[in-house]
Amino acid sequence: MTMEDASLKILQTDPTSRESMEEGRSGKDLQRKCLQIASPLIPLYCCISIIMVLATGVVVLSTFLAVRNTKPVLHVLYVTCPKEWIGFGSKCFYFSEDTKNWTSSQTFCTSLEAVLAQFETEEELNFLRRYKGPSDHWIGLRRESSHHAWKWTDSTEYNASFFIKGFGECAYLNDLGLNSARSYTEVKNSGEGRVKGEERGAWP
């Protein structure tokens, strides 16, 4: 009897050996089937994992850059103004009780190291109108004639953001807004300038 015959006989007579061999074969078959099923899914899971890691990285990086590029909160600076001057934002204004023509008013402002008042925003204009009192006040706008453009005392052109009524060469502020008159007309004046690095406007 050969070895093979003996093994075959044992397998035929011993039911546990046959079962264990069948289990071994079915285990190998099961393992092969699992590998066949798992093999196509592994690249898919890897791709999904890589995409999730990259997406998380993009979100974290975007958040970091957004926080870093956020503009700092701007704090409105209020200057310390000299006695009898009124501050608004980064400017100081002086409201004078004296009545003078436009040229004398500008000279008075210069003596205070200031110039006739200029406004850049509607808020500044409203501030000037509110604090000027019942009197009219010169501002730092002038033109050669009614056919020329308005210019500030520093020679920059007025952007015409607010209409100036009248045909005069010099602008003044009244309760209704901006008006113009001849330079020899006597009105209270306003000014703006720099003192010790701080901007201020004078209303002589």
From TrEMBL:
C-type lectin domain boundaries: 88-177
One of the record's GO molecular function terms: carbohydrate binding
One Gene Ontology CC term in the entry: external side of plasma membrane
Gene3D superfamilies for this protein: Mannose-Binding Protein A, subunit A
UniProt keywords, alphabetically: Lectin, Membrane, Transmembrane, Transmembrane helix
Mode of membrane association: Single-pass type II membrane protein
Classification via CDD domains: CLECT_NK_receptors_like
Spans through the membrane: 42-67
InterPro entries: C-type_lectin-like (IPR001304), C-type_lectin-like/link_sf (IPR016186), C-type_lectin/matrix_domain (IPR050828), CTDL_fold (IPR016187), NKR-like_CTLD (IPR033992)
Subcellular location field: Cell membrane
Protein name: C-type lectin domain family 2 member D isoform X3
Gene name as annotated: CLEC2D
